[in-house]
Design goal:
With 97 residues, the protein is an alpha/beta fold. It has 3 helices and 5 strands.
């Protein structure tokens, strides 16, 4: 626990918040990259892989690895995308808003 300004924070919460804003800042710097999110109750990984394969045949495309669709996995996928990628296809979990 960390206290500041009369508030108490869990270090893991601060770490998560930092990771989130780091990915968000990185995303704003990728102005020429189109991000595509794939969500739903089933078939996300297959759909993501198919979209990435089709786009990858025509342009430089980055896809989120494996079946990772939790928040930390999405943040990692955004940060792994660089300015050389025209597209980034990311699998998203829909278990919470």
């Amino acid at each position: 626990m960390l206290s500041a300004f009369g508030l108490t924070f869990r270090l893991s919460s601060l770490r998560n918040l930092g990771r989130h804003y780091s990915a968000r800042l990185h995303r704003t710097l990728l102005t020429r990259t189109t991000f595509i999110g794939v969500g739903g109750s089933s078939g996300k990984t297959t759909t993501k892989d198919l979209i990435a394969a089709i786009l990858g045949a025509h342009a430089n495309c980055k896809a989120s690895p494996g079946t990772g669709n939790e928040l930390w996995s999405v943040e990692w996928a955004v940060k792994a995308t660089n300015r050389g990628h025209t597209f980034s296809v990311v699998e998203l979990s829909e278990h919470s808003p």
